[in-house]
Amino acid sequence: MAEGDGVAARSIRVRLDGTATESDVGALHKWLEREKPLDEMVRASKLQIHERRRTDESDETGGDDTRTPMGVDMEIVVTVLETTVLLVEVLDLVRRAVDAWRGNRARVEDGDPPGVSVDPVDPQTGRTDRDPEDGDPPAARVDG
């Protein structure tokens, strides 16, 4: 069943920090697509992995936020399309894949890999549990 067919899409947002480059976003996207369990779910039309322009809370509240994202203005979204697939299992797979990518990135490139946050997105609000609200601290990072 595809998104929009009466089932709320369940998504995971993968956001790299301000030190990331476009190359980092593309490399992580490809890494996620090649992870065997995720690849199998994509091929079975149970999952989609795509990049999109970064969405911030200000986009959904009229644009009154003056924060400017640093670095690349893109994020990766993993959308679970099949109701039989458990979001918590996909979230664990994505987090492990991100950790593996960061380890690989640290070995093959100079400098520290960017920090990455991996969070489920509430289908009703489009926000994660860690999105800052009224001065709350920013999302926790996956830093190895």
Summarize the model shown.
The chain has about 140 residues and is of the alpha+beta class. The protein is built from 4 helices and 4 strands. It has a domain at about 10-60 and about 70-120: 2-Layer Sandwich (Alpha-Beta Plaits), CATH 3.30.70.
Describe this entry's structure for a reader.
Residues 44-56 have a biased composition (Basic and acidic residues). Residues 113-123 have a biased composition (Low complexity). With 144 residues, the chain is an alpha+beta fold. The protein has a domain at 10-58 and 70-118: Alpha-Beta Plaits (2-Layer Sandwich). It is built from 4 helices and 4 strands. It has helices at residues 22-34, 36-43, 57-60, 87-108, and strands spanning 10-16, 47-53, 74-80, 116-121. The chain has a 4-stranded antiparallel β-sheet with strand order 2-3-1-4. The model is unreliable at 1-7, 57-68 and 134-141 (pLDDT under 50).
Q: Which architecture of the domain at 10-58 and 70-118 would the CATH scheme give at its second level?
A: 2-Layer Sandwich
* Basic shape: globular
Number of DSSP E strands: 4
Strand order of the largest sheet: 2-3-1-4
Helical percentage: 25-40%
CATH topology of the domain at 10-58 and 70-118: Alpha-Beta Plaits
Mean pLDDT: 80
Major sheet attributes: 4 strands, antiparallel
Task: Label the structural class.
Answer: alpha+beta
Q: CATH first level of the domain at 10-58 and 70-118: which class?
A: Alpha Beta
List SSEs in N-to-C order. Answer: EHHEHEHE
Question: Whole-number radius of gyration?
Answer: 15 Å
User: Which band does the percent of strand residues land in?
Assistant: 15-25%
Question: Low-confidence stretches at least 5 residues in length (pLDDT < 50)?
Answer: 1-7, 57-68, 134-141
User: How many helices in DSSP terms?
Assistant: 4
Terminal Cα separation, in Å?
A: 35 Å
Biased composition (Basic and acidic residues): 44-56
Region (Disordered): 44-70, 102-144
Biased composition (Low complexity): 113-123
